[in-house]
Design goal:
globular; mainly beta; five-stranded antiparallel sheet; 260 residues
Length: 260
């Protein structure tokens, strides 16, 4: 009989975007319970060892985090398996580096370097607005935060700019046609574009049509769309390719150019 949650994760069952090789062992780090889902997160051990190369083994990562050197969203995290996720800010005191977790056009996590000013805030998508005990208005965000007394104009699917130091919302962007967004799920994961139109399908999934900077059009479910700015101006810096997906031929041509 199964008792309690699973505590192990086989390497072959780990999410593909962690990019762990098959032959380096049987097991993969099982993310702890936290603000992001197992298949939508990047544990600190994978981030520090496989991405940033600050450690060679999982044991070394444990030694680093137990020295209280790693902050996620300006809070020290000493759990090597802590699940960092989309829009989280990773700060390393000793090196003075800050990174934001975004997606690349292949649907993998892009550990995007950012400056000190940009590391003071993050964007959160509103998943729910409700009235709590004693009539206090609240909202819940995609990373599990509950914020009390928000602006009454903020609705579900809008994006708020959350400041770590004050713990307050300093700005927000509506989920509107004409605003820039990033796709956080589905086969278009990681693409960036401007919302063209929204389609309602009662009893099914609402669909959003999006156009990127190259003029390519694509559609996805409304739940996969995360607004990141007003108009065509993003509130956070985005990767160099601006979230434009290339065709197989364009990728080949780029590779050949680099070889020359």
């Amino acid at each position: 009989m199964v008792r309690g949650p699973k505590k192990h994760l086989k390497r072959l069952a780990a999410p593909k975007h962690w990019m762990l090789d098959k032959l380096s062992g049987t097991w993969a780090p099982k993310p702890s319970a936290g603000p992001h889902k197992t298949r939508e997160c990047l544990p600190l051990v994978v981030l520090l060892r496989n991405r940033l190369k600050y450690a060679l083994t999982s044991r070394e990562v444990t030694l680093i985090v137990m020295q209280r050197l790693i902050q996620v969203d300006k809070k020290v995290r000493t759990d090597a398996r802590y699940p960092a996720g989309f829009m989280d800010v990773i700060s390393i005191k000793e090196t003075g580096e800050n990174f934001r977790l975004l997606y690349d056009i292949k649907g993998r996590f892009n550990v995007h370097p950012i400056g000190e000013e940009e590391a003071k805030f993050k964007l959160c998508q509103v998943t729910k607005t409700y009235t709590g005990k004693k009539g206090i208005p609240c909202l819940t965000t995609h990373d599990g935060r509950t914020i009390r007394y928000p602006d009454p104009d903020i609705k579900t699917h809008d994006t708020v700019k959350y400041e770590f130091e004050s713990g307050k919302i300093v700005d927000f962007v509506h989920f509107d046609v004409g605003n820039i967004c990033m796709i956080t799920g589905g086969k278009n994961l990681g693409r960036i574009g401007v919302i063209e139109r929204k389609e309602k399908h009662p009893g099914s999934y609402d669909i959003v049509h999006i156009k990127d900077t190259k003029g390519n059009q694509f559609a996805t479910r409304l739940t996969n769309v995360f607004v990141i700015g007003n108009g065509t101006t993003s509130l956070v810096t985005v990767p160099k390719n601006k979230g434009v997906r290339l065709t197989v031929i364009e990728e080949r041509q780029n590779r050949l150019r680099k070889k020359k």
